[in-house]
Structures are given as structure tokens and as C-alpha cells.
């Protein structure tokens, strides 16, 4: 039988381990990770098609980091290409609402979350309608989307994303 001092130390170790363990990702963070992974699959094809440099991969890998400034117009072009490959855009390069909702559901969203994601993107599109350069407009929409996802605490952590990407490779 363990002494009360030993039991106290074991309890303290257990509490410390529980306190230091990173919190599990929320279902919404998991969803955003899966959606990002879905986009990553098309990224390489678009990078080659558009003849974009490796800097695009760096921008894409840092997309969810709030402190990372998204300023590269080429990232908007790449995201537009990816969205087109995934059949998420209409002919006038606006989000196809039904396809975007289905894409979100396919990657783990329930109906309400999928509708919320579509609504966020639609709001971001409306706030950037004045931008005539399609790539710059998509970049600004993407930045708006990232900000709103962070406000909801849905953004996936870099560690989780890197782990996902490494398992895909």
C-alpha cells in the first residue's frame, strides 16, 4: 500500500500532466483542418498550372497564423484555381453556394456549420465586391474568412495542420 506522501506525489503528477496536455481540437477546428487538407490536394496542381514559386506553399502553410501577413496576390490566384478545381466557383468567380456547402459536409461539417461557413464566405465576398482584380479580390476574401474563423476560435493549430500534411505526404 502506498504511503499518503506517495499518493500525494502521484496525484500531483497526474494533475500536472493533465494541465500540460494540449486541449483537444474542437470539432470546428477539426473540420477546418480537413477542409484545408482538401485544398492542399489541389494546391500542387494549381501551383504548376499557374507556374507559381515555392513562396506560395509558404503562404499557404502559414494561412491560419493570424500574425502572418497575407499580401501576395499570387496566393489569391492559387486559391481561386483550387476553388475552381474543387468546383466551388461559379463562372463569374463567385462562390457556388450549394457546392461549397456540399464540400463542407463532405469534409465533416453538419448542415448548420456548412451553412455558417457559406454565409461567412458570402459576407466576405460582398465586402470585397469593389476589387476588380480577381486574384486580389480572392486574397482579400480569404483574409476576411481567416479573420472570421479566428473570431469563432475555429482555426486549426499549426501543429495539427503540419501533422495532417505530413501524413498526406
TrEMBL record:
GO MF annotation list: odorant binding
Secretion signal span: 1-27
Pfam families cross-referenced by the UniProt entry: PBP_GOBP
Domain of life: Eukaryota
Family annotation (InterPro entries): Odorant/phero-bd_Lep, PBP/GOBP, PBP_GOBP_sf
Keywords of this entry: Disulfide bond, Signal, Transport
Cystine pairings recorded for this chain: 46-81, 77-135, 124-144
Family: Belongs to the PBP/GOBP family.
Record's protein name: General odorant-binding protein 1-like
Taxonomic source organism: Papilio xuthus
Classification lineage: Eukaryota, Metazoa, Ecdysozoa, Arthropoda, Hexapoda
Amino acid at each position: 500500500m502506498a504511503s499518503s506522501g506517495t499518493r500525494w506525489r502521484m496525484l500531483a503528477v497526474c494533475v500536472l500532466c493533465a494541465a500540460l496536455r494540449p486541449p483537444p481540437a474542437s470539432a470546428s477546428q477539426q473540420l477546418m483542418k480537413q477542409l484545408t487538407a482538401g485544398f492542399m490536394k489541389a494546391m500542387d496542381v494549381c501551383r504548376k498550372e499557374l507556374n507559381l514559386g515555392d513562396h506560395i506553399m509558404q503562404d499557404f502553410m502559414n494561412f491560419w497564423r493570424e500574425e502572418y501577413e497575407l499580401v501576395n496576390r499570387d496566393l489569391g490566384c492559387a486559391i481561386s484555381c483550387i476553388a475552381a478545381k474543387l468546383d466551388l466557383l461559379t463562372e463569374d468567380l463567385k462562390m457556388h453556394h450549394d457546392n461549397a456547402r456540399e464540400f463542407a459536409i463532405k469534409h465533416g461539417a453538419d448542415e448548420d456549420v456548412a451553412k455558417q461557413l457559406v454565409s461567412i464566405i458570402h459576407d466576405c465576398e460582398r465586402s470585397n465586391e469593389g476589387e476588380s482584380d480577381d486574384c486580389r479580390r480572392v486574397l482579400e476574401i480569404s483574409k476576411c474568412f481567416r479573420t472570421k474563423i479566428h473570431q469563432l476560435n475555429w482555426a486549426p493549430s499549426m501543429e495539427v495542420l503540419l501533422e495532417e500534411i505530413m501524413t498526406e505526404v
